[in-house]
Q: What sequence folds into this?
């Protein structure tokens, strides 16, 4: 196979973020179970990151189609709904290029990113009231909402619940360190 033929067979890569699995005692799922289940939906998981439902996959499906397939497949296989957010490679890499609230010496475990479907636009951000927290704590990016939680994530404003209430969609929160691990898998 020539290099150009090999390049032509490469499938687009997506990042999939599952919400609500392996948190506490509920909805415990091994990553191998997820990989096997999604293989049957033509989603080739190339990497799992941690045990919290961060997946990198290769698929010809669009991100909305991936989300639909993942939810349907996992509901069928696991018996419970697993909301998720899917980003194409380019959108994810732009969103994780830099965290606008990062500063030298700031603990990156306290930097979070809300990933949402639908994406939070300017009007939605204003309706959510998140802009009133101030640009030093929350900023909207092109496809995500960035947050700094100086007193800890558990004491911060629940950005995910706020976004979900306004959009009626699905959001999930990841810390910056985790997203950098996903980013590494996306470019590998």
A:
């Amino acid at each position: 196979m020539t290099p150009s033929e090999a390049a032509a067979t490469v499938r687009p890569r997506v990042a999939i973020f599952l919400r609500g699995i392996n948190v506490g005692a509920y909805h415990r799922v091994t990553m191998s179970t997820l990989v096997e289940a999604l293989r049957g939906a033509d989603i080739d998981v190339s990497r799992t990151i941690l045990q919290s439902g961060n997946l990198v996959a290769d698929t010809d499906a669009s991100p909305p189609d991936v989300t639909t397939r993942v939810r349907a497949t996992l509901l069928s296989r696991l018996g419970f709904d697993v909301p998720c957010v899917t980003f194409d490679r380019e959108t994810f890499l732009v969103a994780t290029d830099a965290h606008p609230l990062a500063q030298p010496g700031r603990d990156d475990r306290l930097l979070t990113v809300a990933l949402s479907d639908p994406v939070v636009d300017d009007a939605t951000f204003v309706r959510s009231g998140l802009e009133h927290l101030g640009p030093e704590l929350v900023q909207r990016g092109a496809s995500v909402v960035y947050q700094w939680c100086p007193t800890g994530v558990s004491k911060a404003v629940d950005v995910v619940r706020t976004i979900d209430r306004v959009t009626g969609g699905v959001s999930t929160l990841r810390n910056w360190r985790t997203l950098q691990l996903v980013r590494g898998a996306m470019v590998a």
About this structure: The longest strand covers residues 111-117. The domain at 3-91 is CATH 3.30.70.1280 (Alpha-Beta Plaits). Helices lie at 3-9, 31-39, 63-78, 89-95, 122-128, 159-167, 176-187.
